[in-house]
């Protein structure tokens, strides 16, 4: 699994669900200097069946804190796995780090995405993303909070027909 993609989605989901805590030293007000979040310090999270179809693993990368409103996670989708339809109040950036995936904006055709692609999801645009039928896909997800803890609004499941571009 590619660390960047899976962690991004994981962080977004974890932050939106209140599961991810900011390391204590990063949360201190007025703290100056870098904070290093070591690989393996944060546990992976299984993507919830209520917001994903199929097997999804989320690896948190970093959480928003008092001074920085963005959060990041790496999300890995096994073949055919995908998110529900959703919107972001401040938009989202996906950086595909491995595999082949799919994404779609509401009312537009499904598109294939590959390692190295960057997907910019504008504010309030209803969309979904996930893996292709025969390939896993990992992406890093970067979101910003409009208000504390609010980075995504989850909606209905993506149907098989929508997933298959029909």
Brief digest:
By secondary structure, the protein is mainly beta.
What is the average per-residue confidence, as pLDDT, rounded to a whole number? Answer: 84
CATH topology: Jelly Rolls
Helix-strand category: mainly beta
What's the domain count? 1
Order of helices and strands: HHEEEEEEEEEEEEH
In the predicted model, the low-confidence regions spanning at least 5 consecutive residues are 1-29
Count of alpha/pi helices: 3
CA-based shape: globular
What is the count of β-strands?
Answer: 12
Computed CA radius of gyration, to the nearest angstrom: 15 Å
CATH architecture: Sandwich
Main sheet overview: 8 strands, antiparallel
Oligomer: single chain
Helix fraction by DSSP (H/I, runs of at least 4)? 10-25%
- Tell me the fraction of residues in β-strands, as a range: 35-45%
The separation of the N and C termini measures: 29 Å
The CATH class, by name, is Mainly Beta
Report the CATH superfamily.
Jelly Rolls
Describe what you observe in this structure.
There is one protein chain. With 166 residues, this protein is mostly beta strands. The chain has a single domain (3-163), classed as Jelly Rolls. The protein contains 3 helices and 12 strands. The protein has helices spanning 3-17, 24-27, 160-163; strands at 45-46, 52-53, 56-62, 70-77, 82-83, 86-87, 92-105, 111-114, 118-121, 127-131, 137-144, 153-154. Strands 1, 3, 4, 7, 8, 9, 10 and 11 form an 8-stranded antiparallel sheet that branches. A two-stranded antiparallel ribbon has the order 2-5. Strands 6-12 form a two-stranded antiparallel sheet. A hairpin with a 5-residue loop joins β7 and β8. The longest helix is centred in the first third of the chain and has 15 residues, at 3-17. The chain is globular. The protein starts with a helix and ends with a helix.
């Amino acid at each position: 699994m590619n660390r960047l993609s899976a962690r991004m989605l994981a962080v977004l989901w974890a932050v939106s669900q209140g599961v991810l805590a900011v390391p204590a030293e990063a949360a201190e007000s007025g703290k100056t200097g870098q904070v290093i979040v070591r690989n393996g310090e944060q546990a992976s999270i299984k993507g919830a069946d209520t917001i994903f179809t199929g097997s999804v693993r989320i690896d948190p990368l970093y959480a928003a804190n008092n001074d920085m409103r963005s959060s990041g996670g790496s999300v890995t989708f096994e073949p055919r796995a995908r998110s529900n339809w959703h919107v972001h109040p401040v938009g989202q950036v996906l950086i595909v780090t491995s595999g082949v995936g799919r994404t779609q904006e509401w009312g537009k055709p499904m598109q294939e995405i590959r390692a190295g692609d960057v997907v910019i999801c504008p504010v309030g645009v209803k969309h979904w993303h996930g893996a292709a039928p025969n390939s896993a896909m990992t992406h890093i997800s970067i979101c910003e909070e409009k208000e504390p803890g609010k980075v995504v609004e989850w909606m209905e499941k993506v149907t098989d027909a929508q997933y298959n571009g029909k």
